[in-house]
Amino acid sequence: MFTGIGYALGMLVAAARIFSAVLVVTGGVKIGRPENTARALRIAGFPYPRLSTAAIGVVEIVVGISGLLLGREVFWAQSAVYLAFGVWVLRAIRLGHVVESCGCVGKPDTPPYWGHVAINGAAVVFSLGAALMAVPSSAPQVIASVATFAVIGAGAMAIWVLLGDSARVVGVLRHR
Fold this sequence. Notes:
By secondary structure, this protein is mostly helical. The chain is 81% helix and 0% strand. The chain is built from 6 helices and no strands. The chain has helices at 2-32, 35-43, 49-69, 72-95, 114-133, 139-175.
């Protein structure tokens, strides 16, 4: 029984670390290709969108790397970053088709949609859970947990991409 709890907690931490890695990637994209994120921020009324995009990218990279290296101590901040992005997506959804891109990975053809809200909600839950309940795990447990969640994460990303494509098709059909 206790081993099962330990394994579950290890999975929780592994999921939070996968979300840490996602922050490193999305932060890097925002710094490398800031145009789409800056445009999304400008449309939503943010001042200094290019500077804001760079700052957001740096914060994502720092929090993501810290989450990968330090874990529990940083998962609180990580959950706040994902919560903020979830709120941003909700605001963008409210604005309707005015915001063409969510700005998360710098792709111009990814409109904000409810899948973004769900992914960010999951990131908040896993990060907060890991912050509250993280316990040290052995290296094999961490590797097994990360591998399992990588497979689950790949499936979730595939679903996210399919939902994004569906949202784009529906948007195109709605405008005809």
